[in-house]
Amino acid sequence: MINSSKGGCGVRGKMGSYILGMQLKNKLILLFMLIAIIPLGVLGGFSYYKSAGLILDKVCQTLLESLSQVNYSIDYFVNDIEQLSMYIYGNEQVQSVLSKDGGRGLEEKHRDQKNMEGILDSFIGFKSWEIEIYLLAENGDRYFTGELLPREYDSFNENWGLFRKARLAMGNVVWDTHYSMKKTEDFGVVLSAGRLVKDIQTNEALGYIVIDIREAEIANKYNKAEQVPGAQMYLLDRSGYIISSSPSKLEVGTKLTEAFAERVFTGTEGYFRTEDVDGNAQMVVYDTSQTTGFKLISVVPVSALTKDGEIIRNLTIVIMAAGIVLSVWLAIVLSVNVTRPLRKLRSLMRQAETGNLSVVFPAEYDDEVGQLGRSFNKMVAQLHTLIEEGYHKQIRAQEAEIKAIQAQFNPHFLYNVLDSINWMARIHKIDDISRTVVSLGELLRFSIRKGQSLITIKEDMQQIDNYLLLQKMRYRDKLNVSILVDEDVTGYYTLKLLIQPLVENAISHGLEMKDGPGTLRIECRRDGERIRFTVADDGIGMDKEQLRRIELEGSYTSAKPGNTAIGLDNLRKRLQLYYGDEAGLNIQSEKGVGTTVTVWIPIREQAGDELDQADDR
Asked: Using CA atoms, how far apart are residues 345 and 372, in angstroms rounded to an integer?
């Protein structure tokens, strides 16, 4: 499984390394560009954002005013319809015809039919309204302006819909919306006004006036107003049903179910931002008629309202582009001038690297670059002096090396002598002398071997075995040795003769001065990411004052004349030189009980790394 967080950190790390590795001139160019471009980008983005918001708010205000004008026009139309119904109600001929007996002769009914049609046509003749008027008399007569009489008006129920409202209104005009359960049905009539007609003299109910208004008439009121392309208009009644809509008519007669409907129903007028089902931003602008309670809604895509903002956006982009070009030019000019002395100094340094130590940096000013140049001049002069001194030292070192080569004859002579003694002991079958001579020869060869500061733990422990063999030949039964080395650490590298001084101290200062036999315990184990060496003895031990002197001075004088523990101080210095703070040394001792010395070194699988680190330190 891929760890995405680590991958992201790796990419950021590579990017950071790339930037840090750039030339100073390029870094300055990048810095100056960022200093100029970021404020320009922030300012340009903020300006465009604010201007787009102001434009959107201004357009919405204009749309709201337009909706208010449309609502006023609809109110005026509704008032005209109510006035028309009142004119019909009060007409003497209408009152007379509706008061007649329904069983009168056909000839009289025909005259009344012609007469009423002329009256109704005269009422709407001077208006180009998309409406139909129906007079529904209690005596069964039916008069209307259209070609057909709807079935629900031919035989109506007074307790149903519009008629129930009109009867309860006692002669006042009432309004009713034509509802639909299917959005796909096409309804020509969307709104009806009704009024109960009473005899003016007797107050007796004569019938009903019904005025049906077609959707086209309602839509014509707001289609004349300026509309934004892509906008959808809705006209709702008090119950939230759609009386009219444009351009889509599919929802006419149904209740508005959009997500913003609740907010519109609870408000009177205003506008707000929302999103459609596809997540596109849109503005909802609405206004409520104070007369009818109808709500006029315009739903407009934000993209259509902010088209004018594209000019500001393009202008902002042009200004930002010009600013970026100018910033890049200034950044290049400034970075070249600032880094010119540094590039001059770098050129002189390269000449000095090739051996030309006569170069001089012309420091004209006392700024940081000038101070650096003067320091460079001093460094070159001192380097020239050191090279001269080093030359003379090299000559002396060569002379010393010649003497050292001559001195190597002595170790070879000792090897030959020890080898002769070994063979003499083997001929005479004196095994103790043979083993002693072999161990001494190995120790001698190992101690003067050149070129290897680090060896494997296995090699180092072999030399400890050789050393202990010599010591056991000396102390016999007085010295008991226990060596425990984990097999998995023998291949790791350690300093040559790392614990040999500790073993020697344990024997010389601890066990030799003890009455009776003693035990020396040597362990080498892995401790996490480090190797732990332990050298413990049950010798005479040390008191607190001796321990304190070792920690402060690095050495102490034992009770036996001539014995000192200076090897501990050398061991500390070697550990610090090769391993630094990764190594550790701990001494624990108790008078009459014994001493335990623990050394920790880091795990190293190769010998070269430690040598390089030691050279660096």
From this structure: 9
The domains of the chain, with CATH numbers, are: 219-309 (3.30.450.20), 476-616 (3.30.565.10)
Cα 198 to Cα 294: distance, rounded to the nearest angstrom: 29
Burial of 193 (0-12, 13-18, 19+ CB in 10 A): buried
CA distance 248 to 229: 13
Rounded-to-integer distance, Cα 214 and Cα 245, Å: 12
Query: For residue range 322-378, what is the model confidence (pLDDT) as tens digits?
Result: 777 777 777 777 777 777 777 777 787 888 777 777 778 777 777 777 777 788 788
List pLDDT tens digits, range 157-209.
Answer: 888 888 888 888 888 888 888 765 444 444 577 888 889 999 888 888 888 99
What pTM did the predictor assign?
0.46
Q: Which two tokens mark 617? A: 């330190």
> Whole-angstrom Cα distance, residue 185 to residue 253?
9
Residue 467 near residue 507, CB atoms below 8 Å: no
Rounded CA-CA distance 440/323 in Å is: 84
Containing H/E element for 52? helix 24-90
Tokens 């259209």 locate to 146
Round to whole Å and give the CA distance between 297 and 479.
107
Region of 231 please: left (phi>0), alpha (psi -120 to 50) or beta. Answer: beta
